[in-house]
Amino acid sequence: MLLKAEFAGDAEVLQAKAEHYLVCFHDGCERHAQCLRWVVGLYNNDNEVAKFAINPRCRDVQNGHCPLFRSCEKTVMKHGLTHFYEGMTGKQERQIRQLLIARFNRKTYYQIRNGKRLIAPGEQHDIEALCRKCGWTGPFVYDGETEDYVW
Predict the structure, then answer these.
(1) How many CA atoms lie within 13 Å of 12's alpha carbon, on the beta-carbon side?
(2) Which of the chain's ends, N or C, has fewer CB atoms near its CB within 10 Å?
(3) Alpha helices in the chain (DSSP H)
């Protein structure tokens, strides 16, 4: 059985998330030990009478194909695009920036650009595919990276 001790280093973050994150209490799920929503549920305030949670009677959840499953493995998340456009032509830079704003919306794009929002692996793939589509063949230079959960 998965214990809180395995996540002791992240206890404060998980406890904060438990206040407002969609959690799962379905212990019978075959994937619960790998599910971030179930792990966050371990940090739930036991004094709460009611909680916004995944319905364990949902057919997909009972069959182990939960559409809301999130892996509790940390992954490499990139952040910041302040040096991302270096080496690109002005035309490529403008075109890529416009496509990224269209993909994420203006507010989210600037949060990503300024490093205030982490870039998940799927989003990194989308960004890099857009750049390749615009003819960029050089390296992708993010401001940094960190390991975190994909919430």
Answers:
(1) 1
(2) N
(3) 11-18, 36-42, 59-62, 90-104, 106-113, 121-133
Segment 4-28, tens digit of pLDDT = 667 878 889 999 998 899 999 998 8
Identity of the highest mean pLDDT range in 9-23, 53-67, 119-133: 119-133
Distance, CA of 52 to CA of 99 (rounded, Å): 36
How many residues would you count in the chain?
151
Cβ–Cβ under 8 Å, residues 30 and 64: yes
DSSP state of 49: S
The answer to whether the beta carbons of residues 23 and 37 sit under 8 Å apart is yes
Q: What is the DSSP string of 119-150?
A: B-HHHHHHHHHHHHHTT--S----SEEEEE--
On the 0-12 / 13-18 / 19+ scale of CB atoms within 10 A, 120 is middle
